[in-house]
Amino acid sequence: MLDVAADKRLGDFQLTAKFQLPAAGVLALFGRSGAGKTTLVNMLAGLVSPDSGRISLAGHLLFDSAARVDLPPERRRIGCVFQEGRLFPHLDVRGNLLYGRRRAPPSEPGFGFEAIVGLLGIGHLLQRRPANLSGGEKQRVAIGRALLSKPRLLLLDEPLAALDTERKTEILPFIEKLRDELRLPIVYVSHDAGEILRLADQVLVLDRGLVAASGDVAEVFGRPALRHLVGESDAGAILSARLVSQDEAFGLSRLSFPGGQLVIPRVTAEPGAMLRLRIRARDVSLALAVPAQVSILNVIPARIRAIHAAEDAHVDVELDAGSRLWARVTARSAHDLGLTEGMPVFAMIKAVSIDRQSIARHGRTENPAKPV
Amino acid sequence: MPPLQLTDAEWQAIALSLRVALVSVAGSLPLGVAMAWLLARRQFPGKLLLDGLVHLPLVVPPVVVGYGLLVLLGRRGPIGGWLHDELGITLIFTWKGAALASAVMGFPLMVRAIRLSLEAVDRRLEAAARTLGAGPFDVFLSVTLPLALPGVLVGSVLAFARGLGEFGATIIFVGNIPGETRTIPIAIYTATQEPGGDIAALRLSIVALLLSLIALVASELLARRIDQQMRS
Question: Of 1.10.3720.10, 2.60.40.1120, 3.50.30.10, 2.60.200.30, which CATH number belongs to B8-231?
Fold first, then answer.
């Protein structure tokens, strides 16, 4: 359990973090820049002391202003990966990887050097200096360095924010592997809803220094009140679906979810695998009857739960299609179709709008690497 | 004897100068690093005053520094008397005293260079090292100091070169004793006071010039290599 109740004032900014979340799986810290994510992370790592409060991790007290406890970072055993990597330029990759390992308590179990190097695919880099690594390689080494320090928790502070899209897609699978293969709780900080959807089980949403919401990712991101935080163009629903079959001829995958069936571009997973999809409101349109002769593969019967005014000339329609779905249509269309609450409609989702970034494997692989 | 051939006495002066300069740098380096760290990283009352004191030898006439050392560390001085009576250490009129005089004179140059390089060290790397299990002193030795190494090197060489050239404070504090305190600059001064000593003064001046040049070039090359290692 990660149990935090801490206050910190920094100039005009006031952070009040109060939450209790299971320290298992991936917990995402989500919020816009300036929401207080980095301050919270630094308080967890021991790099910033809260003005008051209490922080404990899995029964270990890290900070308690009342008891005058403030464990220094080197005694917290929280492995950190920062946005800029922060590799030591005077050491080669091996030296960086072993920096924390050499200082970790020898009696404590930890991951093997070879196992981590293999997992992150950095074996060929060991003799290199950080200056000769690409951005993606640097982050992989930084992750390895943190893992080898025998941490109780891995803290990833926007590890992908400084990378371009191509590098991001290079690193994400490695982080998924960590999640699936190591039994280590991870706190993942990001302002990117897509990354969080793909990686996290739980999410804590920070907004202007306050905890706006916390809980299961799909549930939290589906809440109407939080949709503005995700960003207008990214707002949408998160569905859990099971892979039913592959359509090799057309390169499609068929999924089932509580509201029916979905067809999406082929994903590499075996039938039965649980997937998590993000379906953006702007990619869903509505019809009153099953349309004939359209290119859209997914036509899902639904009922209008509510209609929310959104920015500009459109409205966001909340749908009940077995799962919650959102559709963004123009106010004009809503008027012309006479949309009202409780009305049955058909939600149309273009298969191609569900890209790789919007699909995440949800189920865990059942052979976690054992700590050595 | 050809005019550019060094005499035994001159060789002696050169060897003494090198020893004095080396010992002064080696002896003052730990203190210089500590002082540079204090000035670069800490805020405390009287910091400005301490900063001024460290830099004083740069602007005060060297003979005044020498006189100060004489007063404080002479056999009757408050510190020198104690050193002599309790520890049996005599600085006045010895090569150790010459090393101390050149250490004092080179100290501001050393501290300045190290302080600049300490200030340039990325504090976020130190924070990262803390999260990896290193305590503050460990971080200083394993991250801060290696990253500041080019500055430590440059500071040491500057102080070394300054020590080779030290004259005013040295001659006041430890005098002009052949084989004990007659370093190159003092030997040059002595030569110019003697009839027909011009050639000897010239020889030693060339030596002094070469030694300083070698030290500066070597440090620049080393600093560059370290820098390059970190960059590529």
Answer: 1.10.3720.10
